[in-house]
Amino acid sequence: MKSPKLLTSLIKCEQCGCNMVINTGKGGRYDYYKCRDKIKHSIHVCNTPNLPREKIEKAVLDSLKKKIFTNEFIEGNYEELKSLLA
What we know:
This protein is of the alpha+beta class. It has one domain (20-85). Helices cover 41% and strands 16% of the residues. The chain contains 3 helices and 3 strands, in the order E-E-H-E-H-H. The chain has a 3-stranded antiparallel beta sheet with strand order 1-2-3. A hairpin with a 4-residue loop joins strand 1 (20-25) and strand 2. The protein is elongated. 10% of the residues are buried.
């Protein structure tokens, strides 16, 4: 099953290397990326803080827009793809 959240299964806990998964707070009003082991076992297993989903996803998308989705990148890859398909 595919997650509707952008980074689920893509980001890892800096401390222990586990997946960061979505966890909600305040009765479902807030979404966080949280260390899976912290949820599964105990909050004492890992001290990586919860990462606010919207803030983290916005930072990743902004970075992609600045560094990857530039006109030069798209045009260069388009031309390369055209030549590979020819």
